[in-house]
């Protein structure tokens, strides 16, 4: 709910346009961010059609496409990434945003 800071993860309910293993990826993001105390909102969206727009209030997020995904900040796409690297690349970006030099 955003009280007291910490990570807030938002995700879509999935639909026919979902292009990645959204539930698995959302669980990985949740697991890898559980110790972050900074106030940050991360979106994990299933498709590039609606994902960045629906999650534009998120600080950072990912949205899936067939076999790949995009990473976006405040609704603006910053790059495309193969699906298998999506979570690692997202965590690298979160670390940069938070000023962390270590791997999340």
UniProtKB/TrEMBL annotation:
Gene Ontology terms: biological process: isopentenyl diphosphate biosynthetic process, methylerythritol 4-phosphate pathway; terpenoid biosynthetic process
UniProt feature coiled coil, ranges: none
GO molecular function, one term: metal ion binding
Keyword terms of this UniProt record: Iron, Iron-sulfur, Metal-binding
Domain IspG C-terminal: start-end pairs: 9-94
InterPro entries xrefs: IspG_bac-typ, IspG_C, NO2/SO3_Rdtase_4Fe4S_sf
Official protein name in the record: 4-hydroxy-3-methylbut-2-en-1-yl diphosphate synthase
